[in-house]
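TICKET #2291
ISSUE: user wants both folds in one file
ATTACHMENT 1:
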Amino acid sequence: MGLRKLKPTTPGQRFKVVNDFEQLTTGNNPVKSLILKKSKSGGRNNTGKMTMRHTGGGHKKRYRVIDFKRNKFGIPAIVSTIEYDPNRTAFIALLNYADGEKRYIICPNGMKEGQKVVSGKDAAPEVGNALYLADIPLGATIHNIELRPGQGGVMVRSAGAYAQLMARDGKYAIVKLASGEVRMVLQTCLATIGTVSNSEHSLQNSGKAGRSRWLGRRPRTRPVAMNPVDHPMGGGEGRASGGHPRSRNGIPAKGYKTRAKKNNSNIYIVERRKK
């Protein structure tokens, strides 16, 4: 797995850095029973009002149904293929279970075609296996972590992401996230061993504006180029700096704390994230 820098044969190729997709084992040929239609909103809600800016257009996609719950306990599966998923930064792996069922999971780094994976209490702590936090060895790197038992993994799912199991305290496991935050999660929650695949995703360079449009991202106007009616940083004579960086609603950027003081999840956070 790595990156490829293209030769500058055109202006758009000059700065382009693309993924070599070495980990993938098949082309764009997803399992028909595991894909759903994905319609575009263009950033509009059900009344037609634009509620999300910079959204619209882009190549047509079909949603791949991912098994975040990993709830086929004790049934071994073989990794059939490792595929590209246009809906997320990580790659996905197709599992063929011994009972004949097929499911997609988020592919961890180092997973190979033909590898055997299993989930549940008796699974070995090996890459791709899903275990309860109570059964995972301390210090292990994990991903796809549940916050409520049976909910399905909601944390640590994007390319290259991982968390570390630090300790256990009563009915909770203490997990250190990539942001530096240390939080408590119930030991009855599931997590998958390993780091999420495609770790070099953040080093890619699209090379041209058109590729952002293919991805469904429309242009973003700089606040300092707006009028005062549109943004707190707009207006001024000549090229003004815009003053202190802040959002369209006037909330300061650069470290201003917006978290509610009496947030219910405060009791689970042992240490706040690093800046």
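ATTACHMENT 2:
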Amino acid sequence: MEIQMKHNKKRNTAFLYECLVRELTKAILKEDKQGQTKVKGLLREFFTKGKVLAKELDLYKSLLESKELNQDFSRRLMVETKKDFDELDRKDIFNEQTALINKINKALGNKAFSNFVPNYKDLATIGLYFQNSNLGAKKRIMLEDKVVGYLTRLDENQTEMKPVDSLEFKMFVKRFNETYEHSLLREQKDLLSNFIVSFSDNGLGLKSFMNDEIGRLKETISSHIDESNTPLNENFKKVRAKLDSYSKRPIDSKMVEEVFYIQDLLAEVKRNAD
């Protein structure tokens, strides 16, 4: 049974944070130094340790980053997290959100709030759970069950996400800049964007994107394979085997680089065919 409830996304601190992360991603991809400075300034001003919005964001993350729990532990975690949420000064949070919204509008424009956030539904559900004091008993219970469902569901993504530290990320960007001096393909921009954002969303968006993109690449490769024993055909088979092997590996910067190369290869094959 579905439950309809109004959710103001601009009053969801986790959503505001994700919008800033995606604005930073776009600025990095465009090599927009001014844009990067603006977004980083807002992140420092509102989300550094000790700031009230940073405290609230941590509570969102405590639920968002928990998966495959049993029901008993899920409900205990929800109760304790909600208790911590209720102890935050709601007036302070409202005022800080208002200040952040105004500064985003001024520095980045209203379009920043239209960024696609892959896990928006989960952010909204948790936000409603935190702020359910004015709901009737039935709606509160239904909402709580929805959060429990999120915390107990199995991760359907086939590929695991290996934690990437800041040094590994910097090395990846260095190698990337040395290798890709030409204009990026659309799919490469999407991959890079998801890789950058993976540092803020626990890799959820990147895992989803990689599963879809690897499937697309395998399908494209398979369309070029025939029964011949030509060197090109054998190379296609090796690439498909490489793609097949990714389901048994956690995602890391090495895999992302390899997928970049494969995207380049298939784009070149398509250009030659055309």
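RESOLUTION: both attachments delivered.
EXTRA DETAIL ON ATTACHMENT 2: The chain is about 70% helix and 0% strand.
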